[in-house]
Amino acid sequence: MANHIYAYRNADGRISSISLQEDDKHTEVVQGDDEELIAFMQDRPERPDDLYESDMAFVRVIEDLIEVLVDKDLINFTDLPEAAQSKVLKRRGLRGLNLLGDSKDETI
Known about the structure:
Layout lengths: L4 E5 L5 E5 L8 E3 L4 H9 L4 H24 L10 H14 L13
Antiparallel strand pairs: 1-2, 1-3
């Protein structure tokens, strides 16, 4: 099944919003290489690169929050679901932080 981009045009005939799903407003299929679509995407205030950078910074905030909660004995790292533990351990291993509450000098 092919993915389509559906556009809505304003009264001036310019693309004013897009959707990956057709609805009452977004009815025109536009190709990914359409010049008007590219111009619309470049004019957006928050481009995907900006969102990615913001997400990465926010991930660090969440990591730091988990560390604070563990350090203050408000949660145990093992209270997190296994999938979350695995993901956090993978990232924390890169930073050399110990979340298991053992010796502060050890790293995981």
